Amino acid sequence: RRVVIEEGLAGVELSVMAVCDGRRAVPLAPARDHKRVGERDTGPNTGGMGAYSPVPGADEAVVSEVMARCVTPTVEALRDRGIDYRGVLYAGVMLTGSGAKVIEFNVRFGDPETQVVLPRLDGDLGLLLAAAARGDLGSADPPRTADGAALHVVLAAGGYPGSPRTGDRLDPVRLAAAGTLEGVEVLAAGVGSDAGGLVTAGGRVLGVTGTAPTLGTARERAYAGAGTVAWPGCVYRRDIGPRG
Ligand code: GLY
Asked: Counting atoms of ligand 1 from 1, which one is nearest the CA of 92?
């Protein structure tokens, strides 16, 4: 029997996704997600109920620290073990009083962080990933982040995350209307179809990203979209975004 004792980490969380080519890693814009189903971070953990980027206080120096303390040493350690890791390394970190500390790694894009990080990417993601896959990130332009902000709200099925109700009908007119709103993008996740049209088919059903010059306006846009596509019985948090 083995007992693992972990350090309790106090601070605020940050998600940093880096593109790796086996030797080097370059960060995308940082983001923060909201994991609990209920407002003010109450209720059970979920796959994520929303996210935003930029994250106030998480400037270039913070991202550099996360890279230096958490991401780059991990890529080097993988390499030392003969693992040529090429792809996206997701670092979920806690910004503590004694620096950034790892909570989790994922070897994929993060969800829902990606829905706010990619809209801010100023450059060609395909070229970046292709360079990483070739083991030659140096041949691609480093990822740049556009000015502006993005905020994403997840609309989940009633009962999520326990036993989400499936088969509820999604209104195509409302979905189309949301698509015409300025700075609003609707993404489908747990959506299926039957003879009558689109229906809920999973826990997290739809996500709405608002983009704008500021986080405040991105938030207004995301919620305008969320209100437009919401269906009877859906669940979404009204407090996505920075506190205060
Ligand atoms: N947002 C955390 C994850 O993608 O697992």
From this structure: 2
* Stated pTM of the model: 0.95
Angle (nearest 5°) at CA 55 between 224 and 189: 50
Alpha carbon of 203 to ligand 1 centroid (Å): 15
Distance CA 142, CA 124 (A): 10
Atom of ligand 1 nearest to the CA of 33: 1
pLDDT digits (tens, 9 = 90+) for 83-114: 999 999 999 999 999 999 999 999 999 999 99
Query: Quick one: tokens of 2?
Result: 């083995």
Closest CA to 144 of 161, 123, 130, 125: 123
Which is nearest to 218 in space by CA: 167, 149, 172? Answer: 149
